[in-house]
């Protein structure tokens, strides 16, 4: 480590908000430390390389860093403060765990004491939401240059004029992730704590340096504030065709192809993960993208590969000691290797990231049971049923020898980030679909002709792309349809370039034994859907309940 040095030709921009007010609000002593507000990329690189052990630059110019012991989110350690002004709105249960106001203040004090004893602090003032009418001001206070650069990429960066007139933030994130929570504080289950207090407009992070906690924390905040403003928040990617009214939303959990299928060189990318749908149209929440890097290649995903350059942050990747070239196949540190980069690094990004109302909504699922059709047209009630269900399937781990697929249900295709009851988001979505006459499609990018690990084959990516192209061209809307048994889905009878036994899974399972196994598997999956939906049935309408599978 070297002492802080200043180049004689550098002009320093002072940071002079009202320190008394800030101190009173958050407890951070902005006068006590060397303060860096909205520092440049170059300055953050310098500090990360100088003060943060193990930080290096890749051959492509990206900042390579480590998030420490935690290489993913800690959902079991997420808390929301139980206080009178918001408690009645929140969906308490498996996702949102209560934390007392007193316990939050203990964690807050712990974070503030840690941050105030650092030699230098970083502040980034940015925005969440591209629509100026609905955007909220987010202030991030952290002790690592890596965290500041990450949020500089992921939030919307203010212009110099906007920064000068920024004023007070709507929400402040205090990231003291290098310092642990006290396990004996009431409500703590480990040394990690990610807590949101809507009354104080604060988020406090202790015991994890994984930067994704800040990104998803902002998303959680938007999932509460936006519906209150009459705006629907969605875990989705979005793109736009050459015409302004040709907008598509893609819902899907990890591994379903949400990022891959929304990255289309013939269409403009609005965003890859988090969006809002207002009375004016769709807007991205973020100013950047947070892409998975495992097995990344220039051939498969050229836009993402090209975005990894100076200004981007690479997390937990392995690289060659001499050449500094990243080995994207190496998962020895984690399977969850990631890169955060500004959205303008994607060549066909739509800036500002705002568009009109969607024409199509595509719900993606990766069905490892091999029974859902590659494409189905959904009725409004079915759209609500599948949105609330949020189904995909993952392959069970091989360590115990299990090869059976495992059903995963994540309400609204983003259950870990929901704050209100899932049916509240679903009701808002239903009214918008009806108002704007949106076509809704369910696309299975998983298996057909059998289950994963048995006789099944993965549905070819070229078929999935062809289906999406046919949706965008309007060809699929004109097709002739038939009803798929048990699930009651409308599937096309024929489609150019796609074999009939791919379009209809009944035909894909071959032989007498195959047909018998197919019927049993369909019933089993239908039963899993029904069991899961029972959790929401008390707040769902009769037509939505009736839109589920019938055994």
TrEMBL record:
EC top class, as a word: lyase
Keyword Transferase part of the UniProt annotation: yes
GO biological process terms on file: gluconeogenesis
Catalytic activity: oxaloacetate + ATP = phosphoenolpyruvate + ADP + CO2
Pfam families registered for this protein in UniProt: PEPCK_ATP
The organism's place on the tree of life at top rank: Eukaryota
Keyword vocabulary terms for this entry: ATP-binding, Decarboxylase, Gluconeogenesis, Kinase, Lyase, Nucleotide-binding, Transferase
EC number, as in UniProt: 4.1.1.49
Pathway given in the UniProt record: Carbohydrate biosynthesis; gluconeogenesis
InterPro entries (alphabetical): PEP_carboxykinase_ATP, PEP_carboxykinase_C, PEP_carboxykinase_N, PEPCK_ATP_CS
GO molecular function annotations of the record: ATP binding; kinase activity; phosphoenolpyruvate carboxykinase (ATP) activity
Record has Transcription as a keyword: no
One CC-aspect GO term: cytosol
Family membership noted in the UniProt record: Belongs to the phosphoenolpyruvate carboxykinase (ATP) family.
PANTHER family noted in UniProt: PHOSPHOENOLPYRUVATE CARBOXYKINASE (ATP), PHOSPHOENOLPYRUVATE CARBOXYKINASE ATP
Protein name per UniProt: Phosphoenolpyruvate carboxykinase (ATP)
GN (gene name): PCK1_6
């Amino acid at each position: 480590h070297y002492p802080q040095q200043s180049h004689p030709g550098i002009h320093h921009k002072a940071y002079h908000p009202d320190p008394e007010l800030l101190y009173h609000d958050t407890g951070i002593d902005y006068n006590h430390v060397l303060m860096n507000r909205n520092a440049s990329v170059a300055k953050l690189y310098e500090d990360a390389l100088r003060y943060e052990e193990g930080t290096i630059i890749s051959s492509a110019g990206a900042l390579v860093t480590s998030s420490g012991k935690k290489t993913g989110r800690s959902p079991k350690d997420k808390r929301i403060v139980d206080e009178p002004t918001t408690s009645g709105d929140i969906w308490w249960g498996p996702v949102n765990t209560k934390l007392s106001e007193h316990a939050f203040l203990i964690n807050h004090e712990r974070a503030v004491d840690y941050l105030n004893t650092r030699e230098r602090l970083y502040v980034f003032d940015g925005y969440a939401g591209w629509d100026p009418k609905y955007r909220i001001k987010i202030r991030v206070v952290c002790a690592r240059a890596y965290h500041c650069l990450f949020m500089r990429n992921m939030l919307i960066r203010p212009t110099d004029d906007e920064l000068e007139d920024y004023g007070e933030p709507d929400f402040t994130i205090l990231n003291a992730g290098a310092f642990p929570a006290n396990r004996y504080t009431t409500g703590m289950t480990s040394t990690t704590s990610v807590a949101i207090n809507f009354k104080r407009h604060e988020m406090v992070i202790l015991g994890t340096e994984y930067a994704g906690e800040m990104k998803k924390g902002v998303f959680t905040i938007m999932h509460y504030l936006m519906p209150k403003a009459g705006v629907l928040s969605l875990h989705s990617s979005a793109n736009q065709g050459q015409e302004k009214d040709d907008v598509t939303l893609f819902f899907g959990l990890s591994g379903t192809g949400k990022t891959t299928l929304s990255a289309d060189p013939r269409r403009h990318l609005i965003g890859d993960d988090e969006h809002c749908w207002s009375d004016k149209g769709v807007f991205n929440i973020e100013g950047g993208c947070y892409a998975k890097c495992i097995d990344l290649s220039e051939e498969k995903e050229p836009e993402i590969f090209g975005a990894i350059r100076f200004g981007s942050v690479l997390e937990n990747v392995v690289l060659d000691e001499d050449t500094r070239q990243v080995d994207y196949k190496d998962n020895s540190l984690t399977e969850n290797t990631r890169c955060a980069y500004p959205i303008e690094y994607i060549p066909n990004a739509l800036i500002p990231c705002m568009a009109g109302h969607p024409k199509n909504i595509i719900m993606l699922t990766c069905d490892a049971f091999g029974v859902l059709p590659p494409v189905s047209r959904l009725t409004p009630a079915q759209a609500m049923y599948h949105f609330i269900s949020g189904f995909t399937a993952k392959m069970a781990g091989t360590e115990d020898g299990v090869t059976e697929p495992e059903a995963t249900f994540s309400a609204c295709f983003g259950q870990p980030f929901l704050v209100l009851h899932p049916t509240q988001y679903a009701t808002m979505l239903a009214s918008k679909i009806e108002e704007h006459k949106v076509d809704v499609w369910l696309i299975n990018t998983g298996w057909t002709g059998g289950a994963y690990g048995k006789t099944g084959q993965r549905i070819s990516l070229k078929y999935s792309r062809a289906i999406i192209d046919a949706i965008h061209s309007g060809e699929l809307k004109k097709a002739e349809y038939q009803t798929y048994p048990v699930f009651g889905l409308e599937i096309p009878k024929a489609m150019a370039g796609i074999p009939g036994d791919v379009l209809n899974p009944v035909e894909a399972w071959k032989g007498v034994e195959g047909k018998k196994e197919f019927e049993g598997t369909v019933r089993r999956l239908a039963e899993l859907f029904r069991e899961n939906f029972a959790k929401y049935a008390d707040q769902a309408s009769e037509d939505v309940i009736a839109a589920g599978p019938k055994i």
